[in-house]
Amino acid sequence: MLSKILALAALLGPAAAQVVGKETTETHPKMTWQKCSASGSCSSVSGEVTIDSNWRWVHDKDGYTNCYSGNEWNSTICNDDKTCASNCAVDGANYSGTYGASTSGNALTLKFITEGEYSTNIGSRLYLMAGADKYQMFTLLGNEFTFDVDTSKLGCGLNGALYFVSMDEDARYGTGYCDAQCPRDLKFINGEANAVGWKESSNDQNAGVGQYGSCCTEMDVWEANSISTAYTPHPCTTVGQHRCEGDACGGTYSATRYAGIKDFYGPGMTVDTNKKFTVVTQFIKGSNGQLADIKRFYVQNGKVIENPESTIEGNSGNSITEEFCKTQKTAFNDQDTFNDKGGMAQFSKGVAAPMVLVMSLWDDHYSNMLWLDSTYPTDASPDEPGKGRGTCDTSSGVPSDIEESQASSQVIYSNIKFGPIGSTFKQP
């Protein structure tokens, strides 16, 4: 059995004590994307994807005993975090059969519920890689990122999210995740387990919350289903990945998401979510060399569609600028957490450095995704600025319901392009 275990110090960085299991051969699905030049010419890049380690089978390195089962750690194997990491192996993945993730050419399909041989999988989170052991890194400042997406099979309560985070480059088995919410549901952080003090979720049979969280700058390029969409920059006071502890992690998962235009995006609307469309996001550099503007375009049926102008009084504009963020907080009567974390100047440091591309599909055990597609908080008026986020009922999105009724849901990301401003699509 030991001959089947490969010690891999690079799995979680130089200090890692984890090992990699070899019961399931790890073969990354291949996925091409395009790198474009200022002239507008694009060349194909051979990439691959890997699934996050949180989804993988974790077992004792000398056998088949689960280190983590359901939403509980094995207290015998994992009596402390460092020992747990050295005793437990993170295994390879059967991408299609277990996790419902498959690629074809330049497309990645993520299925919501997959009935595997040994378990039922719910959602997934994958990363684009530059090879077997390194994530593909993208420096967004001064560039634009374009992709096609099909959200036609994503109903209320689901989120097909594509975004960038300031993770470290070196990894193999989907390790090292972080984001601006400082998630504490990660099984391993900084080469150690997150087992001590772990509290099982009361409404998620696969998850819990540990003592530690993992923080970094995050750019939500795309959070969406067929009803609503949002794109949001999240600065952190420390740009790169770092571990936090307990309440100091903060990380409100839903209270600071905001409303928008109600007749622009959806089935049969200007951007028709019954059909595939293209999403373009530009990270425009100002004269001072810092990020000045994040602009959004859509392309569908050969037509370029600009992001609509805000209809909120005192909060004009159709893109994310420093001024837009400030006036939005005032209009919505919200705490200005964006500028509390350093605002556009601090966020600019994140997109000026390489970031990792994340592609995911998930449901929300914290607030039923109402912050994205319904009225939130639920006792507010949908006509109040910042409260009406979509047409889904406030009773929708309960994970136990949609995991049964929307089990066949899926999202498809495809035709990724990256390059200087104006290189990935024809501007109006």
Automatic annotation (TrEMBL):
<feature type="signal peptide">
    <location>
        <begin position="1"/>
        <end position="17"/>
    </location>
</feature>
<dbReference type="InterPro" id="IPR037019">
    <property type="entry name" value="Glyco_hydro_7_sf"/>
</dbReference>
<keyword id="KW-0136">Cellulose degradation</keyword>
<keyword id="KW-0732">Signal</keyword>
<protein>
    <recommendedName>
        <fullName>Glucanase</fullName>
        <ecNumber>3.2.1.-</ecNumber>
    </recommendedName>
</protein>
<keyword id="KW-0624">Polysaccharide degradation</keyword>
<keyword id="KW-0119">Carbohydrate metabolism</keyword>
<comment type="similarity">
    <text>Belongs to the glycosyl hydrolase 7 (cellulase C) family.</text>
</comment>
<keyword id="KW-0378">Hydrolase</keyword>
<dbReference type="InterPro" id="IPR013320">
    <property type="entry name" value="ConA-like_dom_sf"/>
</dbReference>
<dbReference type="Pfam" id="PF00840">
    <property type="entry name" value="Glyco_hydro_7"/>
</dbReference>
<dbReference type="GO" id="GO:0016162">
    <property type="term" value="F:cellulose 1,4-beta-cellobiosidase activity"/>
</dbReference>
<keyword id="KW-0326">Glycosidase</keyword>
<dbReference type="GO" id="GO:0030245">
    <property type="term" value="P:cellulose catabolic process"/>
</dbReference>
<dbReference type="InterPro" id="IPR001722">
    <property type="entry name" value="Glyco_hydro_7"/>
</dbReference>
<feature type="region of interest" description="Disordered">
    <location>
        <begin position="380"/>
        <end position="409"/>
    </location>
</feature>
